[in-house]
Amino acid sequence: MDTPTAPQPTEPTATPVAAPANAKWYVVHTYSGHENKVSTNLKQRIETMKLEEKIFDIVVPTRNIVTVKHGKKEEQKEKIFPGYILVKMVLDDESWLAVRTTQGVTAFVGAGNKPTPISDKEVETILKFMALEAPKYKASFSVGEAVKIVDGPFADFLGSIDSIDEAKGKVKVLVSIFGRETPVELDFLQVAKL
Fold this sequence. Notes:
Low-confidence stretches: 2-15
Order of helices and strands: EHEEEEHEEEHEEEEEE
Strand content: 35-45%
Mean pLDDT: 85
Helix content: 10-25%
Largest sheet: 5 strands, antiparallel
């Protein structure tokens, strides 16, 4: 009979280093669509190059949105600033080179060749926006587009999109009823592209 072994710690034993006062947030430009890969690569480089005391945090700014595909609502993460990540670091030649030479990084954002830090207030605003509870709806419709109503009392009617309210996930569709265009408010799920 096996003797029970003590549970292994799942967290690394190294405690995160508190960022010193001279650590600032910088915006790093990446190839669009490679933000998460750059973040992962950079975290590995920080470990292998022992830069934990110079690079402290990496954020890919995203928010939750709800998209409607094939009549179903799906929650997804949408990048707020495609092609950009935020890195909190103490900027010196070594840390700059580590970030700059990470695969997928194209440049630091700044004036001329000098990376320019962004304010803590800007970072705070971005982080607050990321944490917003209400998922945003992402419309795949455009104003004026012809659609078919697929659900509700007007099912099978054709109409054109008059307005879109992405925050509520609603569209106003102009439907021809008795020869007159009448606006009808519907959920994204109730209409389909023609």
